[in-house]
Design goal:
- This protein is an all-alpha fold.
- It has four helices and no strands.
- The protein has a single domain, classed as Orthogonal Bundle (Helix Hairpins), CATH 1.10.287.
- The termini are far apart.
Length: 124
């Protein structure tokens, strides 16, 4: 079966959304780091309702988790491509994968800072 590009605007966008949802489901159901990060996101959403955070805190919290999950998704894609291209250990591939993982660490650190700024004052 050969791929046929859908040139119509509406059905083409629907198919793109379908592929995106399929990819998100694959990430959440197969990648342990995404499972953990999604669980933390759900807990933070529950905490947001419990503590009645304001709309700006909601915006920051949602943006932080969107950033983490987006960067983690790109990291996973980089790792899968690298493993496909060079399945055995290779120093340069390892370097690339480490850099991608570092990007996730930056995003996760920022998200943790946002959560601390929102929730620590609620406990004090």
């Amino acid at each position: 079966m050969e791929f046929q590009k859908d040139n119509s605007f509406f059905t083409g966008r629907l198919k793109s959304v379908g592929f995106a949802v399929k990819g998100a489901i694959k990430l959440i159901t197969t990648e342990h780091s995404v499972m953990v990060q999604s669980s933390i996101g759900v807990l933070a959403i529950i905490a947001g309702f419990y503590f009645h955070i304001d709309r700006y805190e909601w915006m920051l919290q949602l943006l932080a988790f969107g950033l983490v999950l987006g960067v983690e998704s790109l990291n996973t894609a980089v790792e899968k491509i690298a493993d496909f291209i060079h399945p055995e250990f290779h120093e340069k591939i390892g370097f690339i994968k480490d850099i991608a993982a570092g990007a996730v660490m930056f995003a996760a650190t920022a998200a943790i800072a946002v959560l601390l700024l929102i929730y620590v004052p609620k406990f004090l």
